[in-house]
Amino acid sequence: MTDGDDKDEIAPQDDGLDRTEQSFVSHLRELRSRLMAALLCVLLVLLALMPFANELYLWLADPLLHHMTDTGATMIATEVASPFLAPFKLALFVAFFISAPYIFYQAWAFVAPGLYKNEQQLALPVLISSTLLFYFGIAFAYYVVFPLMFGFFTATAPAGVTVMTDISKYLDFVLKLFFAFGVAFEVPVATYLAVRTGITTRATLAEKRPYVIVAAFVVGMLLTPPDVISQILLAVPVWFLFELGLVLCGLYIPDTEADT
């Protein structure tokens, strides 16, 4: 065998390796461009929100301030930079919140070409529904949970104690609850995916309903402040959303597929 024959046999392998490296590099470039587009969207929204940062914080604090005004109390800033950093942090959170659909679109556009058609048909509705449910969870926390919870907290303050919450601690507290309720409202999606992917069946989940109810109250106890009202206000929706997930499984998953 001549040297020329050896080169002819090695060349196709080198070409295949080069094509693999080129494909990997092109994927990295596409990922970078989509990440940059998502970050640019967040930055533009943040710049648009910054002039209204104080108004945003006032809106966020309204459920607590509504109950504090009866006693003449106000919120305080215990750190020098808190009057700027707290509204800025809130504006950044809202910027991500508003940009979430575009961020998810960029993630979907990057991942979708590598999915099978049936996977695309499943992933896109799940992505949209999980985003909307996260929004609904935050809205439920703000409009339903906060008024009741802060009313309970301010009403149970000992005599002679004036409720004057630090603005940074209030923001951290509220953002944790937003995240907790947003994640808790993903229960229907998690239930549907568990049945659709064959991890479990609808009948099995229905049989374990008592355990799910207990788990919902345990999660409510761990993720919410130590008062009965907020725990119930998280546990009951989680239970309801679990039942909604079972209904969706019955409507959109054939019995033969769900029972496998």
What does this structure look like?
This protein has 260 residues and is mostly helical. It has one domain. It is 81% helix and 0% strand. The chain has 10 helices and no strands. The chain has helices at residues 3-49, 53-68, 82-111, 117-155, 167-184, 187-196, 202-207, 209-223, 228-252, 255-258. α6 packs parallel to α9. The longest helix is centred in the N-terminal third of the chain and has 47 residues, at 3-49. The chain is flat. The chain starts with a helix and ends with a helix.
Number of domains: 1
Q: In percent, how helical is the residue content?
A: over 70%
Order of helices and strands: HHHHHHHHHH
The total of beta strands comes to 0
Summarize, please.
Helices cover 81% and strands 0% of the residues.
List keywords for this structure.
260 residues; mainly alpha; 10 helices
Describe the SSE topology.
Elements: H1 3-49, H2 53-68, H3 82-111, H4 117-155, H5 167-184, H6 187-196, H7 202-207, H8 209-223, H9 228-252, H10 255-258
